[in-house]
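For reproducibility, we list the full input for the NAP complex.
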Amino acid sequence: MAEKRGEAAVENKKVVLKHYITGFPKESDMELVTTGAVRLKVPEGTTAVLVKNLYLSCDPYMRSRMTKHDEPSYVPDFIPGEAITGYGVAKVLDSNHPNFNEGDYVWGITGWEEYSLISSTEGLIKIKYTDVPLSYYTGLLGMPGFTAYIGFFEICKPKKGEYVFISAASGAVGQLVGQFAKLMGCYVVGSAGSDEKVNLLKDKFGFDDAFNYKQESDLNAALKRRFPQGIDIYFENVGGATLDAVLPNMRIHGRISACGMISQYNLEKPEGVRNLIFIITKRIRFEGFLLFDHIDRYPEFLEFTVAHVKDGTITYVEDVVEGLENAPSALIGLFFGRNVGKQLVVVAKE
Ligand SMILES: NC(=O)c1ccc[n+]([C@@H]2O[C@H](COP(=O)([O-])OP(=O)(O)OC[C@H]3O[C@@H](n4cnc5c(N)ncnc54)[C@H](OP(=O)(O)O)[C@@H]3O)[C@@H](O)[C@H]2O)c1
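The corresponding predicted structure, in tokenized form, follows.
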């Protein structure tokens, strides 16, 4: 497709949500449509930015946006028939905004489509380091990486030598939490849903130990074996049965960073948690957080993490799918554990 500025309208492929859903999402809940009439030029009199999308991020929170909420949720519901929106990496083709110029690379909220006209630019960040893979700004250097940084350093306040447990440990957030914890001199154990992921945790990310939770009939016993002295820090990504098994295994004055509870996202009736009493008896600090509240600390996170990426002390695994048409199945795969590492979709490489 030609993409000269100001040229006549071009076609734009996009992924739309067909209808609101309950339960587990299916590929058929979304579809790829082609629309015409996108001019590769920002309309006069606006401060919008027109971008070509390169990499799109598949994130668990997007499931919530596929359901119609009666009360406003912490993120807006998707609008059926319109392009799904989410985090991505893009190249600026045209801009009327003083902070963005043609040719800049940006990451932030964009559309699941080839070209997006972005009017709300407050969710857009100009990419400072382009000498690392640009796809990293969907994961390692983008929203999930920043989540790992805030959720671990700010919420958990780790100390050298502490015992750390991470669930969904090989995912976009978890793999980085584990590496941050190792940098801090902690003892780190992760759980994941396949032997391939368990091997990654131990062999690639340097976890001290890891286990496949799907092969453990008694999660409480599995944790006791790995943490005979107890857990100081639990980085919570899954909720449900894992959380219930962690609580009795926490140490006195332990901290739980409630980042996500993916095991509950598709359930129409959430599971109960029976062991909450241990929050009192073990004097646990159990704190939820959302990365939006900490966005002013993104530059600090970026400098810290880029330095470790460049000196090789932090590594990152991505699960890369090619083509917008494959984005729906990639997104759904998160809820079945199909992704190995950060799930992203390549729309275009340049
Ligand atoms: N608080 C915030 O601001 C914030 C920001 C970003 C992300 N989050 C949360 O952080 C968590 C991790 O996100 P991510 O982007 O790193 O995702 P991810 O781990 O890359 O992908 C999701 C993984 O969750 C696991 N999973 C899926 N269903 C599960 C179930 N029923 N029980 C247990 N595990 C299940 C699967 O791994 P296995 O094969 O290991 O089961 C799957 O690969 C999510 O809960 C997400 O909502 C929170």
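The helical segments are 143-156, 174-183, 195-203, 219-226, 240-246, 277-281, 298-310, 327-333. The chain has two domains: 10-139+317-346, 143-292. Both points were considered when choosing residues for closer inspection.
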